[in-house]
Amino acid sequence: MRKKKGIVGSICAGAAVLGFLLAGCASDGTLATQKLSAGERAIMDAREGNASLNAAPELNAAEGNLSEAKEAFAKKEYEKAARLAERASIDAEYARNKAATEKAKRNAEEMRKNIDALRQEIERLSQK
């Protein structure tokens, strides 16, 4: 039982230290800068994945969050900027994945149509 308390105490102490480190990063803008860069990369990846065509509302949400994050950063509201940039990254990833899903659905539908056409052709040829 003593061993468990020691482990739990160590975990709590580690979490507290990590919290202080992250708070320090947030107060000087380092974490926010990293999150902003990640958000910009995620949005670029989403655009490259045709999210602007297949997931426009989600991509727009990501861009809006990134814009708000940049405004918060300019006001030195680093925690808010980091939070908004993280949300932008998540929205952009969702948009990219949604666009990929839509593309896969279209490809599957096209394949289904091709298979149906081939079946009809085979049926037509077998009746001759």
Outline of this structure?
The protein is an all-alpha fold. The chain is built from five helices and no strands.
What can you see in these coordinates?
The chain is mainly alpha-helical. It has one domain. The protein is 92% helix and 0% strand. The protein has helices at 2-28, 30-48, 51-54, 56-74, 78-126. It is rod-shaped and about 80 Å long. The relative contact order is 0.12. Mean pLDDT is 85; it is low at 1-6.
Low-confidence stretches: 1-6
Main sheet properties: none
Residue share in β-strands: under 5%
- Give Rg in angstroms: 24 Å
Question: Which structural category fits the helices and strands?
Answer: mainly alpha
The percentage helix is over 70%
Task: Please report the distance between the alpha carbons of the first and last residues.
Answer: 83 Å
List keywords for this structure.
128 residues, mainly alpha, 5 helices, 92% helix, rod-shaped, disordered N terminus
Topology:
Elements: H1 2-28, H2 30-48, H3 51-54, H4 56-74, H5 78-126
